[in-house]
Amino acid sequence: MDAIAALNEIAFWLERELAGTYKVQAFRKAAGAVAGLSPEELAARRADGRLKRMKGIGDRTFEVIAQAVDGRVPDYLAGLRERGAAPLAEGGHELAARLRGDLHSHSNWSDGGSPIEAMLDAARTLGREYLALTDHSPNLKVANGLSPERLGEQLDLLPGIEADQDYDGRVRTRLLAGIEVDILEDGTLDQSPELLGRLDMVVASVHSKLRADSRTMTARMLGGIQDPHTRILGHCTGRLLSGSRGTRPPSDFDAKAVFAACAEHGVAVEINSRPERQDPPDELVQLALEAGCLFSIDSDAHAPGQLDFLQYGAERAVSNGVPADRIITTWPVERLLEWAGRGR
Asked: Nearest 5°: phi and psi at 232?
């Protein structure tokens, strides 16, 4: 087995299991350390001891590489594959199979942990027909949000990254240009209208002052929803139920007014699939259904393995009775892009 492929696949399965970042990065860094070596050179370094002395190679990663060089599926990878054969979620499998794409993901251009190419490759492995890259906007400095200049640079690179996919029998995944743009305190979006107009997908989210009073937060969210570039309202309550960042209660806002505006302006309500978010809560999903909203089941992935979190979102959508045709990520890309282009 190819050693680099084995190391990267191990990282994928660990990310899917929400393993610690340090553990995942050990395998990603090891893959990077040996990436320039031919199989012959790798075998030679393993034989004479140089491999074990290389920077970025630890005991576990050495074992994985050595077993791959010997032509074996590494034991550690085999165990992860066995665990990964079971679905992440208990239900929603039929809907999960109908999801064609993912409209909320992050790369190392903002606060994701992997290059765009790695995110796209994982989406292809999972059979996604499209993936929107939605790195953060400049206001979110803690997440290395993209300045207008950096976003423009990223937009120039995406067509080449999409075209460079190696065809190996897997589906070719359409890479959509997008952004997760902050809804600022005055309700405006944190990026220039010119740049937003160049994007295939705009996810608008609130990331700051989450404990504002209901009136203030409602006005802020309505401003973002009413912007003609907004296509998805991201993780609308901002709550956190678990995880390394601790817990956080949901924001307080007039959900009926917000979802009525989403329905009026053709903005989909995101069902955020991250297990620590589960946002919106079930009672708000029901309100959005009653308001006539569309939905988008998204992973909000910050690493390749997290793209499989869509299973969690599908389970929640089914448990809340959300019809598949009102979920825009079940749509073919042509229908999706035609819908997303409205109002521009």
From this structure: -140, 135
Question: 74-83: b or e for each residue (b if 16 or more CB lie within 10 Å)?
Answer: bebbeebeee
In whole angstroms, what is the distance from residue 183 CA to residue 189 CA? 5
| β 232-233/268-272 pair status | parallel
Last residue within a domain, chosen from 46, 64, 84: 84
CA 210/CA 228 separation, integer angstroms? 24
Mean pLDDT of 232-248: 94
Tell me the pLDDT of the chain averaged across its residues.
96
CA distance 38 to 322: 50
Domain carrying residue 150: 93-340
| 25 vs 33: CA distance, rounded Å | 12
CA gap 342, 344 in Å, rounded: 6
- 127 and 79 co-located in one domain: no
Sheet (strand 268-272) strand order: 101-102, 130-133, 174-182, 201-205, 232-233, 268-272, 295-298
- How does pLDDT run across 40-99, given as a tens digit for each residue? 999 999 999 999 999 999 999 999 999 999 999 999 999 999 999 999 999 999 999 999
Place of tokens 């794409």: 101
Q: 297, 275, 301: which is closest to 288 by C-alpha?
A: 297
Query: What residue type is assigned to position 313 of the chain?
Result: G
How far apart, in whole angstroms, are the C-alpha atoms of residue 328 and residue 344?
19
Provide the residue type at 206 as one letter.
V
- Distance (Å, whole) CA 234 – CA 137: 13
